[in-house]
Amino acid sequence: MNNCFDIIRAGTNTTFQDNGRNNLNHIGIPSSGVMDKRNYVLANSLVGNKIDFPVIEFAYQGPLVRYRGKKINFVITGDVMFKIIKKDYEINGNCYETYNIEDGDQIDIISTNKSVYGYFAISGEFNLNFQWGSCSINTTAKIGSNKGKKLQDSQKIEIININSIQIQKKLNYVNTRLEKIRVIKGTNFNYFSNEGKKIFFEKEFIISKLSDRMGMRLEGPNIENIVETNIRSEGLIKGVIQVTADGNPIIMLSDYGTIGGYPKIGVVISADYDKLVQLSPGSKCKFQEIELVDAENLFKLYEIETNNLISQTR
Question: What domains, with CATH codes, occur in the chain?
């Protein structure tokens, strides 16, 4: 019997993701990869995989799938409502806890809770095609596994190399939110007036509905540019904050365009990126300026905390 999932409902934005691609910006290929890296590595660790295995990433509403095959473990991480549907009963699932499923069982990933992204990992491997060393799907560029497309209703996902060791695990972990998103100065920081800089660091901004894996648009008071609202296109990175001609910020996310012509006021530090991407439309955020050395120390702390969590799943 082939082991597979039948997708009954694909969900709103369901893709395969891993750590993404490196060193391809010069040919216009962004890194892509998972949005929330900590929840990604915890998902893989809980089911006994290598932490860089592909997973299913979903946003808002996840997939409803039926399993066919030998017994397997799965886990869901993030802040997610889901249930396991057996032949005679249903189980309301808990995130960061592994569950066994058998032939004919269904998993219904109902929704995220006041967040955006969740992760679905199995004790095995999805049978995927890799492109430039990664399965990560970028739907804008149409690259990655699944022909660069979101998962679709009625699709089958083949599973290979099921792990014979299927130990039940549970991690006590709670997703938290930051009061302020910390940033370092961008390369065009001095394009903005003193009042514009003050607004950026002191006022609240609202996450717009016009946000996706490529970028997060913010709404709020205009940030005044006193030099030039459009510049010659320059290279971009994940987390950079551009300010458009109308004075509103856009934060580049995992599927960012590799070049852009709006001035860059700041860059979100790597340690805060996971928290940033989980802010749902309508949420409020504020920014706090820190120095580069502090950003580096905070990332080291982030990695230590993540590794400590991984060690609790072994």
Answer: 3-160 (no CATH), 181-309 (2.40.100.10)
